[in-house]
Amino acid sequence: xxNRTIIEGQIRGGLxxxxxxxxxxxxxxxxxxxxxxxxxxxxxxxxxxxLPAIKIGHLRTPTAAS
Length: 66
Fold this sequence. Notes:
- The chain is mainly alpha-helical.
- The chain has one helix at 4-21.
């Protein structure tokens, strides 16, 4: 692990993106195949209140020195 802060940021970002994708993002259509969400502002995004507390643990595996 070179930079713990960057690694944990990547983990948190991926988790939040996955949470946002599963229950919030959809592309609803009306009759005729016209999408209802025409702008980025029409999409629901999870806020801090909808996110769980994230606890990250690291597993270290020592290697033999060469």
